[in-house]
Structure prediction request, 104 residues.
Amino acid sequence: MPTRVFTMYNLRPETSIQAFRKFSLELDQPTCARMPACLRFEVFVVKGEGSNKPFFQIVEDIEVESWEEWQETTKSPAFARVSEAWPLHGDASSVVSIFCEKIE
Prediction:
């Protein structure tokens, strides 16, 4: 059964949404989409939160074969460029990833 991964994080203070969008569209999304374990990859900029609480700036919605396969993918040589470039944009200390299976 496919697994959904939701990864949420903030951008580094010096990273603009425009710079992140360029990284996401030109490197991150195409690379992830080519990975065998990845079935679907979408990235969202969060525009707000309904109760005025702090929120993450970015949410990635990823459908993968399994959490374990996805973890191996992110360590693969084919993913290296994303792994090297992401820390220039994302705040690693803010990352939260959850993996889920749909109730059916």
User: Anything to note?
Assistant: The chain has a mean pLDDT of 95.
